[in-house]
Fold each of these.
Amino acid sequence: MLQAGYAQEIITPPTGVGLAGYFNARPNEGMYDDLYVKVVAFELGGKRFGLVTFDLCKIPGALFERLETGIIAKFGRELYEALILSATHTHTGPALGDAEADERTRYALDQTAGAALRAIERAFMNLLPAELEAGSVYNNPYGFVRRYWMKNHTIVTNPGWGNPDIDRPESDFDRTINIVAVKQGGRIAALLCNICNHGDTIGGNLVSADWYGRFVQEIQHQLTTGLPVLIFDDCSGNVNHFDFRQKINQTSYAEAVRIGRGYAAIVLGALKELEPVSADAVKISNTRVEIPHRRISPEELAAARRTLETVPDIPKGGDLESQDLANGVPAALRYFAQRVIDCHDKSRKSHSCRLTSIVIGNELAFVSLPGEPFNGVSQAIRAAGGFKYTFVVELAQSVSGYLPMPECFERGGYEVQPAVDSAAPEAATELIRGALDNLGIADHRGSGR
């Protein structure tokens, strides 16, 4: 019999801690709303497993290390290897990568790791008999592929509102929203949702869970219950909320509220269509995939050095954003030129990433992926996997950066710009193969092409 339990803890950092997701420093100056670590724990056939989400832009290496050490010490390696740890991707959460930065950042790192361990422990203490219902809806009106073919046949990321030189988006993306309801005693006790979009609608220096938090609040408001709601970010390395057909302000807290409530309406409308899914067995698999790193040619290196020699060092007021590269902002040109040099001088040959899959019954699968893969990665996994409901969970289990599709590298754009240990063109293909192998999908030739 399936059993399920839930717990959450607040992980809002103190003021002064740097916020993640931008190139420039943004010290926390207050908060719109709290951040959480949330856990849904399961037990089935004598196996314990679970899903853990953090309201963070990403889980940095320092936090992964604390979690691995703490979970294994407290619960054992078997449970550690049966948990998927992921971040929602809010760009107004703390940057915890540098544990030695200052006292407040160290406090925030300790607080977040400790909160996760408490939530995991309490979630498993709360196990009760449960059933699962699932459904999906192909409706994502708040997501847009952010890479565009321009009329001059180049690719630009975030080309600007109402830009007359836009031709078309580079690709389409999977608009599927997957939903799992954990039911106990005839009621919905928890909701798990898989949605593709970036969490960068607010900007500024105030902490917020972004639209993810407003989504949860609206679900709870409409259902008149404080039921736990977890969001798993589908592959959205090339997807965000900017609709460049319009000339409106799409960076504000109000925008986070609008999108969160909009997604909540879609999910609430789908609840009546959920169907029972079998939960008679669970299969948990772990593997590792080697992510090859970008190599810098002599020509690229020379061009970067020329940029630093010739482009004036003019600071930019406000946040330094990805579209500043396309707009030729001097601060952005110099920033990305230095990244090319650092990529050449400091990158390793590759790095290893952990992949975890949890398959419940024969219809429902959870697949973890590191970093920010382009949506083509999740499309390939769903197409070859054959499960009725596949939750593809990015920013999970290991640290990595953008993982674009191979053909995107020669086209340009922000996401394929070199950085230390940035992915090589073949990385996405290796990731797809590793994920499908881990699922036990034997014949997936051609996946990711």
Amino acid sequence: MSRLERLNERYRAHHGDRQEFVFGADDRAGLIARLVGGPGLRVLDLGCRTGALTRHYATGNTVVGVDVDRSALDAAAERLGIETVWADAEEELPFPDESFDVVVAGELLEHLADPGAAVRNVLRVLKPEGRFVGSVPNAFRLKSRIRFVAGRHPETDATHLQLFTPTALARLLSDFDDVRIQFAVGRFARWHRRLMARVQVFTARKPA
């Protein structure tokens, strides 16, 4: 069995009947859609799943969705009519160099054993001055810190392999220009975004 087939089985088992669930989708959707922009852009959506986020920036743009879960990809294609590709973001992506205006990775990087490999793939397929837009959990929010102090793991999702501080996220994106990270999602985020927000949303630009 190939690595991609193993990942397909793992994520199908993990999501089960919850294929449509995407962490913080409703709260993140508008923000990420504004960062993606358009119309008329060619967008690569890494880890698109069933298209719960994708649908917010698909209209007017040409979107290609990538995921390791084939059943989720089938749902995205049927739902949105977008092109989908079964592929692993950590491996060589089957796209030409500099072929996308925007790459999106919503809640993907924390699932990867080697997020640096995925970022290198993004750099290769992005056009000069193209944008990389995405999000990762704010793993060091107050709730997660309390879990850690209590002797529990900060994250409850077994498929999360990385914990990103804003500094670590910025370091991962260090080959990009104009890296911006903001905190979003959560009832109490307005009181102290860094401590209370559930998600870090980022945007970065590939050098010319």
Amino acid sequence: MHLCVESKIDLKTGDLKWQREVNNEFGWNDLIHLNDSTIVISSNGLHKINLKNGDGWDYKTKTGKKDYTAAVVENTLGTIAGVLTGTFVSTSAHNIVRNVVSNVETEDSNFYLSSEEQIAKLDGKTGEVIWKNVFDKNTSSRSNIFLDDEKVYLLNFGFANMGNRTISFGKPFFAAYNKITGEKIFQKIIDGKKILVMR
């Protein structure tokens, strides 16, 4: 687990006033200034931080994935090369898939975020989950949330990032959820040739 420590230092004395640990295993995705003393960090979830005292809440969710596929391919190629040359080199490294997350939408002091696991609505004051709708396995990817009066819309792009590369990841789809209950209204899977509607 990778942690980033947010802290405040007194510029007059150099004393540490407060610190907060924020998981950034899959990288920072966004930083939102709610006002002059409060920020929200999107990094493996959402983290609300009062800059004066470090107080706030944490909503933890996965915004990436550890992908061991590349390591398996490298070891297979290494085995073949070893048979041919007599030299074998293996790797146990994995690649990190990042940006399996949406933008952060806010409305009426509530936050909306989609991650690798689910789309969720959070109480902005407490960080409590008001509702969540869990995705099918290997479905989510980089996405975008937008709202109207009654619905939360999610456009899932079907790609993410690994290192400096953009890779195909998850499934492209367009979905709508009830803003009050989180119930899925529809989901349209986009396969490049046609749109399949799932209710």
Amino acid sequence: MNIVILGLSITSAWGNGHATTFRALCQALYERGHSIVFFEKNVEWYEHNRDLPDPPYCKVRVFESWQDIIPAVRRALAEADVAVLGSYFPDGIAAAELIANSSVPVKAFYDIDTPITVAKLRSEGATEYLRSDQVPLFDVYFSFTGGPILQQIEEEFGSPMAVPLYCSFDPQRYHRFDKEARFECDLSYMGTYAVDRQPKIDVLLRETAQKLPGRKFLVAGSQYPDAIDWPKNVERIVHLNPQFHAQFYSSSRMTLNVTRRDMVMAGYSPSVRLFEAAACGACILSDNWAGLEQFFVAGKEILLPQSSEEVVAYVTGTDESELRRIGDAAQTRVMAEHTSSRRAQQLEGIVRSGLKQARGMRIAI
């Protein structure tokens, strides 16, 4: 298939989780014989932090102005079997109209931020990248979030088909590595700063670090305010290149996962970091939310502390063999269900069904 994707970014993972998701998916699709063109708008914070400017598995078109790139997008769409518009694409509303008016057999919206999108569609009728009246224009609504919200997207906004397309990981990049001294720690956390996430990080990591001054903690991620008072035993990495993410997780005795508020409220919203950490055999401590049991078994494949006291108990009272057992169980689970190849197969199945339907309609006409 010829696939056109318009997404937030694939060339830079700075401050976003979209890039690693698109990279894993596009590489898996390429390895399965598909051709991909990826359109990405040039923005300052990505332009100066491009860790993968030229992916070998897709053709990237970085553009400055939507008006200037429209002819190139139209040409690509004219040759495409499927067009995918990603959430937070800067010119998403205009791009949705262009896709809707094209002859592409299968038109898809890929929402990597489903709860945020749905909340804004309900309250304001639009986001910066999609209007509520545009949802029915897409043949399929791929969602990072599963569960009840899928039916809501169909019933409230008129999507013909809303299906989960969870994030995934590339097992060639994410697996257990030998520990690296610079990343060795008792508890790590990786994620961009978010106001709604920080209170949980304060409780589960900062308070734990204060109670365990002899232990080492590591926080990697950008945009954290200078006003945050990190304990002295918490090392900060402002931005960690994705090429070192697997070593980061592999070197942590435990790693923390904290979910955005909108994702918690919707449930069924695993983050890409969750699967990547599991793929590296890390023992994961996570906040809890509806649907998490569909992805990991509590106590066997993941730990779910609710207080800093519980985290302290895990850090000080769990031996290395138990940490390894939990990490191995999580790794086995995601290798079976959440690799990029598995996700590419799921996308293929939905798209091929749509292609058959579209071709059948043309023949009938």
